[in-house]
Design goal:
The chain has 8 helices and 4 strands; from the N terminus they run αβαααααβαββα. By secondary structure, it is mainly alpha-helical. The strands form 2 sheets. It has a two-stranded parallel ribbon. The protein has a two-stranded antiparallel sheet with strand order 3-4. Helix 5 runs antiparallel to helix 6. The chain starts with a helix and ends with a helix.
């Protein structure tokens, strides 16, 4: 369990130059009653808001804006909990790791299932993307123990970029509505194709990283 306590965090993302100073400022200015656990709860509530808003988009597409707000709230809570703990020097490595990533999985399920109940994206494609995201998440957690490295960015992309892409998708769905194309005599949503492409990208990151780590362990004889 020492590697869980002493792992190296790698989060080399495109939005890092904007995100890191923002989180540092937020941590420095949070009132004392806001704790890392409070942030985790806020992040989970943001994911729940996204789920509900996606469901309500069947009634009115304006709820897609509320879903995007849910992504922002989720980012705020999920990204700030660890930053706040480190800023205040109140880290609890095993507890924080367990609570943070347990809530992450719950949030991922809520968000992707919500995406699948919109009128824009089919449920099976949303589930495919969820499986891909969970595969990569599980690999991140396993490598934290095996390699002592908590790497959540792949190809300069991480959870923050994922949320940004989701918000852009919401905007596209709001302004362009349901868009279908004919592909081999089958009617397919362009949003389904986009989400499927994201799923394939995540799966590619998973396969490549898993094989590289296995090869490294083989060469080390471990």
């Amino acid at each position: 369990m020492d590697k869980i306590k002493e792992h190296t965090r790698i989060n080399d993302i495109l939005l890092g130059p904007l995100e890191r100073p923002t989180l540092h400022w937020l941590a420095a200015n949070m009132p004392a009653w806001v704790t890392p656990d409070t942030c985790t709860v806020i992040g989970t509530l943001g994911a729940l808001l996204t789920l509900v808003s996606y469901g309500l988009s069947n009634i009115n597409p304006n709820y897609l804006w509320l879903a995007s707000l849910g992504f922002f709230i989720n980012w705020f809570g999920d990204s700030l909990d660890g930053t706040l703990a480190r800023y205040r020097h109140i880290e609890r490595p095993r507890y924080g790791y367990y609570i943070d990533h347990t809530s992450d999985v719950v949030c991922q399920v809520l968000i992707f299932l919500g995406l699948g109940i919109t009128p824009y994206i089919s449920f099976d494609i949303a589930c495919l993307a969820l499986i891909s995201y969970l595969l990569l998440s599980v690999l991140v957690y396993i490598r934290t123990y095996v390699a002592g490295e908590f790497k959540i960015s792949y190809g300069k992309l991480g959870p923050t970029e994922s949320r940004a892409v989701a918000v852009l998708l919401n905007i596209a769905m709001y302004f362009f509505g349901i868009q279908n194309i004919i592909f081999f005599q089958a009617k397919i949503s362009i949003y389904d194709l986009f989400v499927a492409a994201i799923a394939l990208l995540l799966t590619g990151f998973f396969v490549n990283t898993a094989l590289l780590e296995a090869r490294k362990l083989t060469l080390l004889g471990e």
